[in-house]
Amino acid sequence: MKKFGVLVVDDSSFMRRCVSKLIEKDCQFFILGIARNGADAIEKVQRLKPDLVTMDIEMPEMDGLAALEIIMKNYPVPVVMISKHTDKETESTIKALELGAADFFLKEDLIGEDITNEIEKDFLYRIRTIAEKKSNIAKESIGKKVEEENRTTKSLPMHKVDLVAIGCSTGGPSALQAILPRFPKDFNVPIIVMQHMPPGFTKSLAERFNTLCNLNVKEIEDGEIIEAGNIYIAPSGFQTTINRRQDGTAIFNVSDKLVKDILYKPSINVTLKSLAPIYKDKLLSVILTGMGNDGLEGCKLVKHYEGHVIAEAEESCVVYGMPKVVFEGGYADTQVPLSYIYEQIMIHI
Questions:
Q1: Where is the signal peptide (predicted)?
Q2: Quick one: average pLDDT of 136-140?
Q3: Which residues contact residue 152 at a Cβ distance below 8 angstroms, ignoring those fewer than 6 apart?
């Protein structure tokens, strides 16, 4: 069994102990070292060569964002951010994901006596999966020849689509950054994004992408009409479905009362299942990097209504979970690395 060495970075000795104690509950991990600020972290990443780093955001001397940028540029290693649920740190967390952080967790979920077995298992499973996939941190260095050899495509569509739905989880914000800013101002098909995130983070995600994209990017509001020229981010903590009025307009329904037993909010399955009967063969579903199997049942229904599905290939995924189950289920028309996703979307437009 492979062992993974972890560097724990936090200016609080209490948080370092909490995170270290939690990590060591998994026998595949051992604490390789600790660091008290960003500068200390950079030196220890270079010297100790950890398999995984947990990084606090707010620290003295050098904060986590500054350290992360240097580490990803010079000593690429999977970095998981440990964030507080505040407006400032929410924005910083989104920036960290842009810079290449593999995932993030809320401090309040990881400390104290109230932490549940489910939270512990989820945390350990996610960081173990990320550590096992560390070779993919340098995913954009994959040669074009390798990408060509790994492209899997069925037949190209015979007609155009009216809506693009993108689902993603772990590694999603970074993957979205490689796709969404490329759409031109005159792109005439609405885009809906379902990104797994804790409540409160998708608003900052939408605001950040609105500064990067040619199209208008916004968090979905209940009762809002779907219009071309917009990229819509499904709000975390809620389920987003779509209804079509008698006049043909499609509107969003955002609720926390729908399908309460569903783990993910937003759920890709829930949204796709509402889209598929409405858009039928005019729907394009894109499943990007992420853990678990959310999107599988949704893509099954998309194909039932003769819609189209693109899945991200394993070599560019931070976590090859959601695209894998869709591809292995036989529901993907195309499976390509991240750098080809935009190209494949535009074939359908």
A1: none
A2: 42
A3: 313, 327, 332, 334, 335, 336
Phi/psi region, residue 32 (left: phi>0; alpha: psi -120 to 50; beta: rest), is alpha
In a domain, 255, yes or no: yes
CB 53: neighbour CB atoms within 10 A? 29
One domain, residues 178 and 253: yes
Q: Reply yes or no on whether 348 is catalytic.
A: no
Q: Tell me, yes or no, if 169 is annotated catalytic.
A: yes
pTM: 0.87
Distance of CA 125 to the CA centre of its chain: 16
Name the catalytic one among 169, 174, 267, 316: 169
β-partners of residue 241 are 253
Please tell me which residue in 162, 294, 316, 333 is annotated as part of the active site: 294
**Looking at 103, 162, 174, 196, which residue is catalytic?**
196
Residue 45: which domain range? 4-132
d(CA 240, CA 103): 23
Q: Are 167 and 295 in contact (CB under 8 A)?
A: yes
- When pLDDT is cut at 50, 70 and 90, the band that residue 118 belongs to is confident
- Identify the pLDDT of residue 215: 97
Q: What is the CATH number of the domain that holds 126?
A: 3.40.50.2300
Indicate if 128 and 175 belong to the same structural domain.
no
CATH assignment at residue 248: 3.40.50.180
What beta strand segments (E) does 36-125 contain?
A: 52-56, 79-83, 103-106
Q: How many helices (H) and strands (E) does the chain have?
A: 13, 15
Whether residue 71 is found in the same domain as residue 176? no
